[in-house]
């Protein structure tokens, strides 16, 4: 299933802003790895509701410049409403079209929990290379597909969808995560092929914890802007949610429901001279 950008709504956007702690924390680690500093000009691709952006804006300060872009209007509206920095702007846009940004103008570009959703990754990286200053850096966090498909929420979801009545009507390989995610070596190859110098790639296990099964479903829907079960026919989707919720509940302890999560942290740089 191709990623759909028309399933989002105000409720999903608000929920994401409230319960995206895991993305926010991983994003902060990425920002540290990128060495973002006061005065930097930063491009946040897939900024969502701007939660990580606000953290970056605090770091770059009054002398810095920040642009956050995201295709989802509901999320950009929340980001705009919370923005107080005079040199920060949030606007709708996609990774594949950075035509509003000048060549060689950005110190740091980042995509926090975004790259797996980008349909044309090669064009996006070409655009990122163009807007980065020589020596500028791009940082990416994204699920390590080789591990995320066999662990965590996806494992439980698929175990339910393999049962009757879903098994005859749902192809697990059609999930958006399956269609658009990347294994680690694919990401490295894409970065290198785009002409970026790969500086650091790490796959980290980061646990996620949710109070209830309902919270897991809410998070999965909000973070995928409605795409979580879009490979399940409309007539079965609500029942599938209930069955997945029941399955998740079996894994709840007094500490809630804990999942393994595997995230790739990648940093690459625009070469300053002719690469050899
Ligand atoms: C899980 S959210 C991450 C939001 C934020 N970066 C964070 O760290 O919390 C994924 C975001 O990617 C955005 N997205 C999807 N396709 C995109 C594209 N082609 N270009 C830029 N952003 C995209 C979505 O609109 C969504 O807001």
Automatic annotation (TrEMBL):
Keyword Protease tagged: no
One GO molecular-function entry: demethylmenaquinone methyltransferase activity
The residue range of the signal peptide is none
Query: Is Endoplasmic reticulum found in the keyword set?
Result: no
Q: Which domain of life is it from?
A: Bacteria
* Span of domain Methyltransferase type: 43-138
The processes (GO biological process) annotated in the record are: methylation
- Any idea which UniProt keywords this protein has? Methyltransferase, Transferase
| EC number annotated for this UniProt entry | 2.1.1.163
Q: What class of enzyme is it?
A: transferase
Family label: Belongs to the methyltransferase superfamily.
- Return the protein name: Demethylmenaquinone methyltransferase
Instruction: Look up and give the organism this protein is from.
Output: Methylomusa anaerophila
The gene is ubiE_2
């Amino acid at each position: 299933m191709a990623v759909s950008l028309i399933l989002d709504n105000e409720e999903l956007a608000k929920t994401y802003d409230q319960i995206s702690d895991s993305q926010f924390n991983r994003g902060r680690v990425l920002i540290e790895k990128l060495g973002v500093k006061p005065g930097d000009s930063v491009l946040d691709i897939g900024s969502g509701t701007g939660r990580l952006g606000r953290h970056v804006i605090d770091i770059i300060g009054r002398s810095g410049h920040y642009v956050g872009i995201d295709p989802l209007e509901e999320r950009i509206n929340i980001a705009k409403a919370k923005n107080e920095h005079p040199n920060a702007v949030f606007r709708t846009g996609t990774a594949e079209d950075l035509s509003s940004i000048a060549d060689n103008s950005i110190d740091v570009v980042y995509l926090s929990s975004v790259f797996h959703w980008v349909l044309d990754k090669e064009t996006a990286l070409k655009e990122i290379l163009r807007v980065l200053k020589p020596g500028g850096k791009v940082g990416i966090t994204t699920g390590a597909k080789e591990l995320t498909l066999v662990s965590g929420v996806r494992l439980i979801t698929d175990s339910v969808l393999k049962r009757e009545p879903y098994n005859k009507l749902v192809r697990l390989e059609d999930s958006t995560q399956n269609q658009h995610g990347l294994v680690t070596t694919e990401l490295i190859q894409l970065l290198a092929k785009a002409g970026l110098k790969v500086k650091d790639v790490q796959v980290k296990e980061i646990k996620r914890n949710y109070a209830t099964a309902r919270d897991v479903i809410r998070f999965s829907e909000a973070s995928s802007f409605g795409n979580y079960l879009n490979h399940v026919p409309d007539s079965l989707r609500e029942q599938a949610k209930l069955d997945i919720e029941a399955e998740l509940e079996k894994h709840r302890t007094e500490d809630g429901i804990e999942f393994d999560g595997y995230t790739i942290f990648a940093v690459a740089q625009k070469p300053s001279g002719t690469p050899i």
